[in-house]
Amino acid sequence: MFNDWFGATIAVDLPGCVEATNTTRSCVWMLRNPNGQSYFTAQVNARDALVAGSGYSYVWSPFFGNAVSLPGNIPIYRLTKPNGGSLITASKPEYDYLAANGFDGQGIDFYADPANSNSGYTVYRLYKPSTDEHIWVKGESDRSVAINNWGFTDEGVAFNSISPIRQEQAAPTNQLLVYRFADMPGNSHFWTTDLAERDRMINQGYNYERVAWNSSALTTTKKVYRLYSSKMQKHLYTLDENEKNILSASGFWVYEGISQYMSDAPTARPVYRLYSPVTTNHLWTTDANERDVLVRSGTFRDEGIAWYQP
Questions:
Q1: Which residues pair with 234 in a beta bridge?
Q2: Which of 30, 91, 197, 210 is 20 to 30 Å from 135 at the Cα level?
Q3: Which of 306, 303, 309 is nearest to 221 (CA)?
Q4: Domain boundaries defined on the chain
């Protein structure tokens, strides 16, 4: 929780910001000076310069942006106001006008998703006339606190932060996150525990959905094998070494190695396997509701529990 700013308690569900842990992600920092002006930037050098030389102190990181432009992103421009605060905007005409009329234009600060897009968090722009202060908050709850308790007025939706599916909490000790992609070639899904592979695919424009489940980091547990068919443009995952060997020997599938490690014994966290005779795709999911909806639709049939999470 965040409770230092106006003395309020505002929910913060970001996992925290550590530079250089993910080259596609930027933490957007909020700073505040003794005169009551707020400054927002994703640029670490700008943040540190304000703290070291301009009397600003770090407050929190209200949302994420992207350090580089990914598919569907828009640039977010930053200006320094005459009073020392900042203004960030997705509008290039607004940026150009203000830069020509007393604001110090700093260029593109980070990238985000367009306002009202079906992704990420909604980021609202608010203004406090009595102090000539702008702030940006994510979500309706934080917006309401700023308006109802602290005298800000709503200036509308500024943009959407990058999707929260790119903001995963770290896996528990001895576990790894399994990342899920959709809309792959062949109309299939894809899963990987490899962070570098995940980020490479995001940069190439593949549709990253979320963390699907956790796998074990211990290589002594059950192996999940990964195979690929270039003719079908699909991946297959299986615990069954015999299935892996038969498919590999067919010449139709290529064995790509061990995808992940799962629990040796049943747990309360099963991963279900489904198959669609319509698309010839397999799907693995921990979501019993997703399984049930797909089976009821007639497009998939239930193939049971594939394995168990640790």
A1: 229
A2: 210
A3: 309
A4: 26-165, 168-308
Nearest to 192 by CA among 276, 284, 270: 284
Number of neighbours of residue 217 by Cβ within 10 angstroms = 16
Instruction: Sort residue 76 into left (φ over 0), alpha (ψ -120 to 50) or beta.
Output: beta
Q: What are the φ and ψ backbone dihedral angles of 12, each rounded to 5 degrees?
A: -130, 115
Number of H helices, E strands in the chain: 6, 18
Contact (Cβ atoms closer than 8 angstroms) between residue 235 and residue 190: yes
The 3-state secondary structure of 67-136 reads CCCCCCCEEEEEEECCCCCEEEECCHHHHHHHHCCCCEEEEEEEEEECCCCCCCCEEEEEEECCCCEEEE
- Residue bearing the bigger pLDDT, 99 or 289: 99
- How far apart, in Å, are the Cα atoms of 63 and each of 26, 57, 136, 249? 9, 18, 9, 49
Q: How confident is the model at residue 3 (pLDDT cuts 50, 70, 90)?
A: very low
3-class DSSP assignment, residue 224: strand
> What integer pLDDT is reported at residue 12 of this predicted model?
38
Compute φ and ψ for 284, nearest 5 degrees: -115, 135
Question: Can you name the residues that pair with 237 across neighbouring β-strands?
Answer: 226
- How deeply is 274 buried, as exposed, middle or buried, from its count of CB atoms within 10 A (0-12, 13-18, 19+)? buried
3-state helix, strand, coil in the chain (%, to 5): 20, 45, 40
C-alpha closest to that of 102 among 89, 87, 91, 120? 87
From residue 132, alpha-carbon distances to 38, 70, 87, 137, 154 in Å are: 10, 33, 11, 17, 13
- CA 51, CA 74: separation in Å to the nearest integer? 28
**Best-predicted range by mean pLDDT (179-188, 201-210, 242-251):** 242-251
What value does the mean pLDDT of the chain take?
A: 85
Determine how many CB atoms are found less than 10 A away from the CB of residue 152: 24
Q: Which helix (H) or strand (E) holds 262?
A: strand 254-262
DSSP sequence for 158-192 = EEEPSPGGGSPPPPPTTEEEEEEEEEETTTEEEEE
